[in-house]
Amino acid sequence: MRAAIIRAVEILSDPGDVVELRAIKNGSTAAGYFDDTGILSREAAKLDEQGFTVYITANPTNPALLSRAANRIKRPLKETTSDRDVLRRRWLLIDFDPVRPAGVSSTDKEKEAAFGRAREVYGDLRRRGWPEPVAADSGNGAHLLYAVDLPNDADSLGLVRRVLEALSFKFSDGRVTVDTSTSNAARIWKLYGTTARKGDSTEDRPHRPSRLLKVPEERVEVGREQLEALAASKPEPVRKGSQGLGTSEFDLEAWISGHGVPVRREGPWQQGGYRWVIEECPWNGHSDNSAYIVSFPGGAVAAGCHHDSCQGYGWRELREHYEPGACEHRYERNRYGPASAPAGQHGVLLSEIEPERVRWLWEGRIALGKLNLVDGDPGTGKSAAATDLAARVTAGKSWPDGTECRAGGVVILSAEDGLADTIRPRFDAAGGDPSKAVALSTVPDAEGNERQIALPNDLQVIEAAIERVGALLVVIDPLMAFTPGEINTHRDQDVRRMLAPVARMAERTGAAVVVVRHLNKATGGNALYRGGGSIGIVGAARSGLLIAKHPEDDGRRVLASIKSNLAAPAHSLVFGLSSTEGGAVRDRPRILGALPTSRTRRQHGELAAERPRGHRTELQPGSAPGGELNAHRRRFSRPHRGRAVGSGRTLSYRRRLELEPNRHRR
Fold this sequence. Notes:
Number of domains: 3
Helix content: 10-25%
CATH superfamily of the largest domain: P-loop containing nucleotide triphosphate hydrolases
Structural class: alpha+beta
CATH topology of the largest domain: Rossmann fold
């Protein structure tokens, strides 16, 4: 065993590299750092004999990490290798995992299916001119390890992730998947020569040794151009309206079945999408997994073939191939047929655009594929509310007003709250699924130092995170923390140039992007003008929400609509803040009921004023229990002097950001 372990370490690392050895058993972890292969092999063999599953880091790490546990094992080792600790990327790790219940080993038949898929991918990459990989038996599936030489930065992370997703798109199905989670630089990898253990060892699902199968005589690296070419073969969401109907209006699965499209494999794609790999390209007869149809999580449909000779063919052409005349009506303006644009002219004819309904993540409040805004003063619960909403999405829990919430992933960009002591406890308290949430804040620069994510320069990092978990919601909290220094946030043109790519990313991915913003120090006036920075920020958003203190109860907050381009403004809601016993979660929203609204004929944007004495408000239907609603009704049915609650459409502030009502015209 020790000889096999030493050979594996020598192949995966260079002499003198510092390698982390990590072993896991029943939730407990033992780990240490080694630059002595002999000692590492001895400790790994001991751990294997004790029933641990043993891994090592595949990429070289910072030599300073040796001081955490120098050539020895600690149980537990508090600090293990993070992505920022990796010096460079030396391996592209491709894991072929047979589909089976979680926590069990594979059967012989399942394992053989994984090997068959690995051989298929190997052949495909050979045809692309890739060099020979290291081939290995993981114990439950198959591994291919391709040598690379890439910096450990955000661009390389995005590239490796796109490569794995491209392979998964072509080769994953209901029997075997290409694991797309192995893209991070600090990924731990099976230490060949040790035993793969999942669940109990049984006759049909035994524990098996992992081992190297084939090692090239020399290390030849895959070129970046080859990686980019493969990554580019992954279909991207098409611009809305340019490739036909979304799946919400068109039964794509029924169309494929009804028109006899030959499908080689199919399966879910990006937590909400679905894809079909076609047996043979309908245009040039390619039969190497290159032709596809995909329905994206946001509803867009794309099709095509990866070969150069098929470039320019898409969903429209594929549909016309199987259903002649299906798309002609989109162009025929008159009896002379399609209108052709003269050379040099730009733009899209509206006749070519298929009308679509607005898609909502939270009906009337947060739109999918759009930029949404949440404003509020510090300490009013904006971040807590955003975390609560994110948790609801990951768990598919209903929205505070009782409406259904579509389940999906979330991406959280936070620059003010700690992940471990604030965001994660809040998220857990709200019942979220942390496996569907990606937290982003910094990325490594060219020198390996961490820097703040900057908009729009690092959108590829955010988009990669969206794809990683099939995100339906992206929270940027607060916006100004992720604004680069060269952007003047009080200059409308600068702000719009920054946010336009963010809005395009939202449309491209179908995710709802929620931007959190602090209010300025001004008093009075329309709520639209109280947000920090240029008016262009709220101008770019399609929906705007405000969180402020309740005018009569400092322990409660109001969530009100201040801008709604896509629908009638939603009614306002009242929520409270609570904490866990440990105190780590200081603010967890709990929606209590609908906020009363005043009837008004004033148009959106007009300055609000005080309600005349004796005016009575009415409570709109809400999500709170009856007793709670009745309490609200009693409170707001009496005459008010001075402050009262506005309609949620036109709001202004007085003193401590208390909401003011609209004034009725007589």
